[in-house]
């Protein structure tokens, strides 16, 4: 197995330019492909997940042209040219779920599949919602999970569509993005509490940018107007990834001392990404923010004398909350992260994985169905070997352990290619 060993570090300082947001990139690619005109996308994330979406769009007949400054996408006006396709989508949930919904309404025959972990990630709630409107979707493996076979249907959106909101917000995102293809007014009712609301805000923001205005009633009811049609704004600029920002902001909060700081470029407090709220949570832990730069595309963070533990409902920052779990190693007291049930159905079972790996470096960890409690050790155990479970965020989170002045080895470091292929090179620039 390939490994990377990070040397013991005590200090963090420097400037990092972030890659584009995965959430924004893949949503924008699909909307651009479905639009009635063409789109130039700037600062698009180049990663495994976006390559899976791009590959799928090209197979479906969407023409893309890459230049050194942007990607030009020729829209199909809601009608994919290829009506018979086999699509391999890796472990890219932000590609698999929205494409499932869009293709269910595209009058074609499609086979969607991915890596083995993708076939363990639930999709039943989305399929159930689509079958309510007449979609013809069959499971090619286990019930409720990919792979899927999709056949043509005549959708009926005359009745409200009910969808559960407590497993993954990507199911609701998929329905929202697909329903304008019917051309008819449609209504979605969310059953139960909706998790990860900020990701729905990203979806609604981008749909609005592409000329579809969805009415949102307290995240319980959504109405897509009749005659909705995606129309490109022509130019779209992708923000830096706020989830990726969390690792560098955390490094600054842990180890940027004696007047130094870690600064990120590419995102600020006006971001449409929910994970930008990570900034306020590490401020509660004692991190020192430079308020003068947070409104102009930059955020700068310095370390306090000692971080403080927090007890936090993390529904608003589900991905960045993983970074808080590792920061807990450097905080006084026991940190509790709640409302993180969605971690269980991500690239791996992140609650279980985080508990196992934190114990390797000496933490006392309690895990529940939707929470994790971390009590730091008196001294982080050196030379731990961290398993990453083919999960990019596990690899990036645990790089921060080296800032405790201990070397750490991370297995399968190339899994970061999912969202941040050159992460470890960038991390090396700010630590010493």
Give an overview in words.
The longest helix is centred in the middle third of the chain and has 14 residues, at 242-255. It contains 12 helices and 25 strands. Strands 2-15-17-16 form a 4-stranded mixed sheet. A 4-stranded mixed sheet has the order 4-5-3-14, covered by helices on one side. The radius of gyration is 21 Å and the shape is globular. With 432 residues, the chain is an alpha/beta fold. The two termini are 27 Å apart. 28% of the residues lie in helices and 23% in strands. Strand 22 (364-367) and strand 23 (371-375) form a beta hairpin. Helix 1 (22-34) packs parallel to helix 3 (93-104), helix 1 (22-34) runs parallel beside helix 6 and helix 5 runs parallel beside helix 6 (197-209).
Key descriptive features of the protein:
single chain, 432 residues, alpha/beta, four-stranded mixed beta sheet, 12 helices, globular
Radius of gyration: 21 Å
Strand order of the largest sheet: 2-15-17-16
- Bulk shape: globular
Residue share in helix: 25-40%
Task: Give a brief rundown of this model.
The protein is an alpha/beta fold and 432 residues long. It has helices spanning 22-34, 48-59, 93-104, 124-131, 169-178, 197-209, 242-255, 278-284, 321-327, 350-360, 392-398, 423-430; strands at residues 3-6, 14-17, 38-42, 63-66, 70-74, 84-88, 109-113, 136-139, 148-151, 161-164, 186-191, 215-217, 221-224, 235-237, 262-265, 288-289, 298-302, 307-308, 311-313, 331-332, 335-338, 364-367, 371-375, 384-386, 408-411.
Summarize the SSE layout with pairings.
Blueprint (H helix, E strand, L loop, with lengths): L2 E4 L7 E4 L4 H13 L3 E5 L5 H12 L3 E4 L3 E5 L9 E5 L4 H12 L4 E5 L10 H8 L4 E4 L8 E4 L9 E4 L4 H10 L7 E6 L5 H13 L5 E3 L3 E4 L10 E3 L4 H14 L6 E4 L12 H7 L3 E2 L8 E5 L4 E2 L2 E3 L7 H7 L3 E2 L2 E4 L11 H11 L3 E4 L3 E5 L8 E3 L5 H7 L9 E4 L11 H8 L2
Parallel strand pairs: 2-15, 3-14, 6-7, 10-11, 18-20, 19-21, 24-25
Antiparallel strand pairs: 1-25, 3-5, 4-5, 7-9, 8-9, 11-13, 12-13, 15-17, 16-17, 21-23, 22-23
Helix pairs in contact: 1-2, 1-3, 1-6, 2-3, 3-5, 4-5, 5-6, 9-11
